[in-house]
Design brief:
two-stranded antiparallel ribbon, alpha+beta, elongated
């Protein structure tokens, strides 16, 4: 990705008009759901890319990496993309484990070892 050249993509979509007087919207445009979300400033591919580097690096580091790859975004933008774009259902836990804890520092300790769930 990236390089010495910037690029801007202009999409031309069809525009449709509704002749029904009771219709709330009179103008409709063609949607491209596989390319870009309605009113988006980034393609879906770039949005997914920002989520991936946001999950891997977080905050400042991901913004610097995106800038190196010619996608200038702020750290807050990447974190917003992570919060809004990463909606996977968690996998059910197979094993639960807790390390050590102290009842009173330096006196009594307890340990719970890993145990299978279900």
């Amino acid at each position: 990705m990236g390089g010495a050249y910037g690029m801007r993509v202009r999409l031309r979509v069809r525009k449709f008009f509704c002749d029904n007087a009771t219709c709330r919207r009179h103008i409709f445009t063609e949607r491209l759901p596989a390319v870009v979300a309605p009113w988006a400033r980034r393609t879906l591919r770039l949005a997914r890319y920002l989520v991936v580097i946001g999950l891997a690096l977080g905050g400042e580091a991901d913004a610097r990496l995106a800038c190196q790859w010619a996608s200038h975004v702020s750290p807050d933008t990447v974190l917003r993309r992570v919060r809004s774009g990463h909606r996977q259902a968690p996998h059910p836990a197979r094993v639960v484990g807790v390390d050590d804890w102290a009842f009173h520092k330096g006196h009594r300790y307890g340990t719970i070892t890993a145990a299978p769930c279900g």
